[in-house]
Amino acid sequence: MNHALGHALRRIGIVLAVLSACAHPATAQPGPSPGGSDAARLAGTVERAQAIPNLHALIVCHDGRVVAEEAFRGPAVDRPVNIKSASKAVVSALVGIAIDKGVLRSVDQPIASVLEASIPKDADERVGEITIGHLLSMRAGLERTSGRNYGAWVSSGHWVRYILSRPFVDEPGGRMLYSTGSTHLLSAMLTRAAKRSTLDLARDWLGEPLGIVIPPWTRDPQGIYLGGNEMALSPRALLRIGEMYRRGGVVDGKRVLSESWIRESWTARTMSPFTGDSYGYGWFIRQVRGHPVYYAWGYGGQMLYVVPGLALSVVMTSDPNEPSREDGHIQALHALLADGIIPAIASDTPDARSMGAD
To answer: How far apart (Å, rounded) are the C-alpha atoms in residues 63 and 344?
Structure first.
């Protein structure tokens, strides 16, 4: 064994020996580590991850066991970090729970039924055609409030009204127009329909049952928590959410999210013009080495990957102030999953079952 490989195996061996569970720490159980060349491959992947300048932390969870966990730089894995647009998947979960609880009716509910008071009098009449499902899948048709339009939006005095005053660049239900404003409208709907803040709902519906801390984050001038950006969760908390989805919405024997909502969220509704990947309700979808992969993606490279067919959840957090698409960082993160993590786990999972996005 050469020196570099021996060093890599010693570093990851600590994690593999401890093997904390992906579930709540109180239920931690020891589990088998990948054997032989798989351990070496996973160790090599961790070494490769450390060399990516903007990557802060990596957690790999296989079949309910953490098989790799390391903070290369930045905060520790139990400290909240800005997950940016990966929080769109969190808001999607809150919407699903709200529908199950009857706070919202369905994905076909027009947003005007809740947000009517904030619709400008001179708004395009097509605003009345926008539904919850359109917002979740980024198909509202309104001009985007992300990218170059983000600054003007968050500088406005009424974020909800500003979004609803944007011109239509497609019909409701048309092509994907990735816009944080769409997710913010969902946060506003949750707040008004439940008569509770999005933070309160997140803590009650996700924080308490998952055993995770959800700190306050940015609010708009009307006090509505920003939907789809600036939320802070620790990498371990983000992993808990991924594991909840992987396990069909059940955590520690308690149902938190309906299995049907997970299926709906992981059903392709449109396609990203930036990546070519499909998009459901807050989740991107791609095939990696023959396995359906569902992932939440935040600016800078805040990633939550779930690969149900391999019983695999992966969290990667990065510098939130650096872009991920322009400098190849997101491609490097995808490659860590495709060329390192999945091959190591797949060869250790002979009976891996594939769960499609039907």
So the answer is: 13
Same domain, 14 and 100: no
Q: Indicate the pTM of the whole model.
A: 0.89
Count CB neighbours of 227 within 10 A: 30
Inside any domain, residue 352? no
Tell me, what's the pLDDT at 317? 98
Looking at the structure, tell me whether residues 7 and 52 fall in a common domain.
yes
Question: Is there a domain that residue 198 lies in?
Answer: yes
Q: Which stretches within 110-177 are classed as H helix?
A: 112-115, 132-136, 150-154, 159-164
Same domain, 117 and 136: yes
pLDDT at 327 (0 to 100): 75
Mean pLDDT per 10-residue section of the chain, whose length is 358 residues? 42 37 39 56 95 97 97 97 98 98 98 98 97 98 97 98 98 98 98 98 98 98 98 98 98 97 98 96 98 97 98 97 82 97 81 38
Q: What's the angle, vertex CA 266, arms to CA 19 and CA 181, rounded to 5? A: 105
Q: Give the dihedral of Cα atoms 64, 200, 227, 23; nearest 10 deg.
A: 0
- Res 294: pLDDT: 98
**Does one domain contain both 188 and 244?**
no
Domain limits for position 126: 86-210
Number of domains in the chain: 2
Cα-trace Rg, the chain: 20
CATH number at residue 44: 3.40.710.10
* 264 and 329 assigned to the same domain: yes
Q: What is the pLDDT of residue 7?
A: 42
In a domain, 219, yes or no: no
Query: In terms of Cα–Cα distance, which of 16, 3, 88, 120 is closest to 279?
Result: 88
Note whether 306 and 331 are same-domain residues: yes
Q: How far apart are CA 26 and CA 205, in angstroms?
A: 20
Q: Give bridge partners of residue 168 from the DSSP assignment.
A: 142
pLDDT at 323: 76
